[in-house]
Write a structure and sequence with these properties.
This protein has 192 residues and is an all-alpha fold. Among the domains are: 50-103, Serine Threonine Protein Phosphatase 5, Tetratricopeptide repeat (Alpha Horseshoe), CATH 1.25.40; 122-192, Alpha Horseshoe (Serine Threonine Protein Phosphatase 5, Tetratricopeptide repeat), CATH 1.25.40. It is 79% helix and 0% strand. It has nine helices and no strands. The chain has helices at residues 5-44, 52-67, 73-84, 88-101, 106-118, 122-135, 140-153, 157-170, 177-190. Residues 21-46 have low confidence and may be disordered.
């Protein structure tokens, strides 16, 4: 019994449609299950508490820090975890612990200043950033953040622009140069 060309094409189309339907059900079904699992996991963590994996990572770092109390990297890493989860007061506490062990670390001090800014302590944030720039005058991230604190926190647009223009002069290869120049131009155009 020979199948006509039309029948063969029809059979082939049905097989392709069935395979496509199976793939779609599998794909969308697995996404729905994944969303359900994520919803259950997030509902298990109490409100305003870090996720379990974050708490476990912090606990592990605290244990390492207890074994090596003079290692400034552990409190800085704990501070980074709290910072990434938006817990700026806790992050600032651990950044300060790290700085007590290893003063004049521009990365940690700049992160501390950023926490202070997010906590509404802009004057203190500027003091920390000025300290960083006193011993590391070309530390780009401190200059960028100082501009942010001046513009957004202190509403000193001219001061912020001045700091950012200095950053661009001192670091011609600044990675976010185009974005920063655009922001400076927008602020100048707005007359703020």
């Amino acid at each position: 019994m020979a199948l006509s060309k039309f029948s063969l094409n029809l059979l082939f189309a049905a097989v392709i449609a069935a395979l496509g339907l199976t793939a779609a059900v599998s794909y969308f079904g697995s996404d729905r299950r994944q969303v359900q699992v994520q919803a259950v996991q997030s509902s298990q963590a109490p409100e305003n508490r870090p996720p379990l994996d974050l708490a476990e990572r912090i606990s592990a770092l605290q244990q390492l820090s207890a074994r090596e109390p003079q290692n400034a990297d552990y409190p800085a890493q704990i501070g980074n975890l709290y910072y990434d989860s938006g817990q700026y007061a806790k992050a600032a506490e651990f950044y300060q612990q790290s700085l007590n062990l290893r003063p004049r670390d521009p990365n940690v001090e700049t992160d501390l200043a950023t926490c202070l800014h997010y906590m509404g302590q802009d004057d203190r944030s500027l003091q920390v950033l000025d300290n960083v720039l006193a011993y590391s005058p070309n530390f780009t991230q401190a200059k960028f953040n100082k501009g942010i604190v001046l513009v957004e926190g202190k509403k000193d647009v001219k001061g912020g622009i001045s700091v950012w223009e200095d950053l661009l002069r001192s670091d011609p290869g600044y990675a976010q140069r185009a974005e920063l120049e655009q922001r400076i131009n927008q602020l100048k155009a707005s007359g703020r």
